[in-house]
Amino acid sequence: MVKVGVAGYGVIGQRLADGVARQKDMELVGVADVAPTLPVRALAEKGMPYKLFTAVPEKRNLLDDVGIPVSGTLEELVQEVDIMLDATNAGVGAKNKEIYQKYNTKAVFQGGEKNNVADVFFHGYANYEKGIGADYLKLTSCNTTGLIRAIDAIDRAVGVVKTAITIIRRVADPGDYHRGLTNALQVAEAPNHQALDLMTIMPHVDATGILIHTPVTHGHIITPVVTTKKKMHKEELLEIFKAHPRIRVVRLADGFLGNASLFKYARDLGHPRGDMYEIAVWEETIVNSGDDIMFAINIPQEAVVIPENMDAIRAALKMQTSRDEGVAKTNEYLGMKARG
Amino acid sequence: MVKVGVAGYGVIGQRLADGVARQKDMELVGVADVAPTLPVRALAEKGMPYKLFTAVPEKRNLLDDVGIPVSGTLEELVQEVDIMLDATNAGVGAKNKEIYQKYNTKAVFQGGEKNNVADVFFHGYANYEKGIGADYLKLTSCNTTGLIRAIDAIDRAVGVVKTAITIIRRVADPGDYHRGLTNALQVAEAPNHQALDLMTIMPHVDATGILIHTPVTHGHIITPVVTTKKKMHKEELLEIFKAHPRIRVVRLADGFLGNASLFKYARDLGHPRGDMYEIAVWEETIVNSGDDIMFAINIPQEAVVIPENMDAIRAALKMQTSRDEGVAKTNEYLGMKARG
Amino acid sequence: MVKVGVAGYGVIGQRLADGVARQKDMELVGVADVAPTLPVRALAEKGMPYKLFTAVPEKRNLLDDVGIPVSGTLEELVQEVDIMLDATNAGVGAKNKEIYQKYNTKAVFQGGEKNNVADVFFHGYANYEKGIGADYLKLTSCNTTGLIRAIDAIDRAVGVVKTAITIIRRVADPGDYHRGLTNALQVAEAPNHQALDLMTIMPHVDATGILIHTPVTHGHIITPVVTTKKKMHKEELLEIFKAHPRIRVVRLADGFLGNASLFKYARDLGHPRGDMYEIAVWEETIVNSGDDIMFAINIPQEAVVIPENMDAIRAALKMQTSRDEGVAKTNEYLGMKARG
Amino acid sequence: MVKVGVAGYGVIGQRLADGVARQKDMELVGVADVAPTLPVRALAEKGMPYKLFTAVPEKRNLLDDVGIPVSGTLEELVQEVDIMLDATNAGVGAKNKEIYQKYNTKAVFQGGEKNNVADVFFHGYANYEKGIGADYLKLTSCNTTGLIRAIDAIDRAVGVVKTAITIIRRVADPGDYHRGLTNALQVAEAPNHQALDLMTIMPHVDATGILIHTPVTHGHIITPVVTTKKKMHKEELLEIFKAHPRIRVVRLADGFLGNASLFKYARDLGHPRGDMYEIAVWEETIVNSGDDIMFAINIPQEAVVIPENMDAIRAALKMQTSRDEGVAKTNEYLGMKARG
């Protein structure tokens, strides 16, 4: 049983904790945060299924004052664990790294941190090997993680030369009042960082693209145009995607009309928090553009990176030393399997 | 163990089934629907925790063709149960009633049906007694159910003379692509039906109001101005609401910034589907207007009527013959308790 | 011809300039701003119908560099005019006041400034007399301005005792990317400032209320519950509102389905910028709550304060020394008239 | 002076009428519609700048009853004009065609009609020649019209082989309460009809693509990936687009942050109805994907087709018998010119 801690108990941190708790070969020692945010209040209302550590000891009174039990400090948590998953706000992870280094504790950072915080920029399916034994890993962001699942699967089948992607981004998470967009599509400077990040993980692919923010809260949609070494037809692509445990092929004809259908379906499935780990591809969107192929992916932004974070723990702690074994364990414990 | 069936496995029907399954003194015999909608597909993907009956036998092939197991017909289900919860689309319930009558099976209809489908227009807290032993009950709609919880609580404390309510209505449920509103507030003719419905349940109260549709999916907000027999101050109102197991008092200062915060919080609590049964009242919105009192309520439209439906079963089947005992059992099994 | 300058050429400043330009007894000397914002770029593309002055001389190069002609500095503009309309961002007006005072130039500030920037908190219809000859006036904000038009009209007819208002607020203006709200209703602490501001202008009225932000860009909707000295019926209220040049009575039955219909209609009318100066009241929303009366108002937030600003100039410069004459001139030049 | 009539006075019909009224070599005889919709009411409130004809004589009372002056019937209008612009709801145009044929009146149909209603599927810039002297023309829809402007410009410069387009579609027009989408992105079956339509106009180009509906009202955004015969770099593309009178190159750095900025800017420019005829291309979105080029276009859906409709009149009535002369006249009268 490897011991894991989580720093930052927000949208991602909560889900990382839940994900670790589902791995039968990992023990979640606790989570760290600063203030009685809604997730921390919910943790208390649930009866503290996870121990909470204060990330800023001098602000511990914020938690004490509202009667939320505190089990110690982040620094104490770091000493108890083999690896930390850091899901704090961008920039905080770099500071926390000093604590991790002080105690020789490995750590996995999230997409918001700068690349130089880590030794390896990691994706479970695309470069598991690079993470094996690494001390500091950084995961790709939600869009990039999901996109690479698809591009890597195609690449392993027929080789990917280049891709031009349009990202139709949800602008805020459900319940987020700090960011927002009202009746507007916001254009970002191209190329988007997801294309650049993809090239860091898959340097042999030429990637670029445009990102547009849209006023919705559930799921980015990405429409990559992919140039392959050998022309790929719709049926072949479907076969590859259906065989992938982290890709769900859905059909408009079955009622999956858009990103909100997938969120609804995850709730109807009874998934905790209404989360979905898989990206989805709409069967009816797959088309050839000459010898290129194009399709639409749904990225469930709140939960999509959880499996790859579990993979990162497995690689860093050498729990499994091959990609296939590593991702298979994660998939097993998170209940993901090929549906093809 | 009373036996219960559910007709219509949509937004409300799914939650009714889940609610019945949580009542230790009830047995959910099965649910009925017609087509392989997303909820029905999710039921199958979960391994059929509930038996499915076809509501339209001649369309059974719709389910068979996609491999969803069918346990019989609605008519068969009706014969096996003591009471049906009918959550079909508006108008279908009236037709289904013929089947219920044929087998002398009691039934509870939802807010969308016309009042004359039922003998009693029912609300667990406001008129439980009227439902005792009744054959056909109709529940109030989501807004009215939640609103009456608050108005009834005030009424029992100091007496309510009249109320003028503004309903700020979410226009569609999450995942609903058939209704929608984009960058617009839509005004409805006054008085709204919720005020009229409230008067049917609480005939001694003079109610009226205006309803505005807004482009959001999580939770109606209602701002009633209530004229009481005896002036009520904020602290008294808070005390009453905190003592009510189906009302949750929340604070802006704690991070509950709007309707989306409550949906998020329910997800963070790990509630199935991210549902919340309680209405919420924001502490910082309670103000006196002269001798009247005004406040803002959140109505979680997908789940709010579930407890009162359980109450209706209890009343109709005389499982508990007093309001206090009836609602207490529902509250116990659904995990709702006073937080005051 | 009185001479007028405008400081701040944003959403309000542009419309103030247009409004002044339409007053046959006023001369718009120019507008002041700092940077080549979209409104300033549009002014240039239109061929500079208004002269532009730089508000921050040391940043004049921002304008020069993109070839936008600058006619001088704000300080020079202030010396050329009889009165300044200050529509700068909140807080800047207080600083600008030093310049206005230096040259004994009167000024009108907008709702975002603190009350103490001015000698008089002004509303054209409700307290014109207080503004006569005043040096520094502050206008009410958009919601309050529109609301007072309605409440003042009722007050003059039968006397208003108190009002409890629900404000359903649009969260951002069209084209605003800096504020936003996505799939959420945001609750504000009660009482809202609009109720408090109303009492500053109409101290004999007891006002309170709740404000909810909604993710739309066109027009706030307010639903006041008004307690009058003498009960008022729908037909009487309609008569009063139809006789008011700044109130437009509309009907759902005619196709005015919500706030977006009014914006559309203003565009269809060919109004510059698609603006509407009148508030609207939906006929079908007027209901009695006991002896109180309730209705729904639309507030076109971008343009509603323009008429009252023109009134403020008239009062401050004693162009008309009675309310009726003052507002009549504004109405005439802006094309507003009773439709009753 | 050629004589023009407009059938259907809705979103497009109003703008067609305004467009014709601005052509110095055309006379707008009148517009036809059925009911007192908001546009028709606005026409009346403006004092009937255009004569109104009833499209359904037996329903003329709908207009008479509310005092809107009617100048005759659609059939009478058709006899008075050289050409009709038909902007009625999809399917009505096909019926109206019988009237047009009866009186040998030419007609231009809009994108919603089926292709077989017309002899020529027309685009002013891409195939003006085909429309010369034609009796019945059909215009491309808003997205296709704007998209073809860009693709045709590239094609004439270096030759276009294929294009894979992502259309991020606004789901409803401002003020539209009949369609809507709330917190959801809706995926359409690929390839989208715009790609197919493009190939009808430009048969030598291989086009496909995916369309996603988004909950906004102002301006579609399209991100085409274009494979050219000769690689094109950003600077060349900018030069071509800047030289095109119907394409506006804008920059994020100048404050054009998305589709809502362009609508705002058109309002700030004082354009009637806040309309913009030009498509816009964001300079910072232009990127090469290998030898392909990709960029983001804004399509102002309400007004974009107006210029090409004017072109269609010119071609059909042989007012100008070359593309360059035809589009130049339209551009002159509508105030569009190259900004390069």
TrEMBL record, chains A, B, C, D:
A GO cellular-component term linked to this record: cytoplasm
Keywords recorded for this protein, A-Z: NAD, NADP, Nucleotide-binding, Oxidoreductase
GO terms, biological process: glycolytic process; lysine biosynthetic process via diaminopimelate
Segments forming domain Glyceraldehyde 3-phosphate dehydrogenase NAD(P) binding: 2-142
Signal sequence interval, chain numbering: none
Pfam name, any one: DapB_N
Residues that coordinate or bind NAD(+): D33
GO molecular function, a single term: glyceraldehyde-3-phosphate dehydrogenase [NAD(P)+] (phosphorylating) activity
Entry EC no(s): 1.2.1.59
Family matches, as CDD domains: GAPDH_II_C, GAPDH_II_N
Superkingdom in the source lineage: Bacteria
Active site positions: C142 (nucleophile)
Broadest EC class assigned to this enzyme: oxidoreductase
HAMAP family xref list: G3P_dehdrog_arch
Protein name listed in UniProt: Glyceraldehyde-3-phosphate dehydrogenase, type II
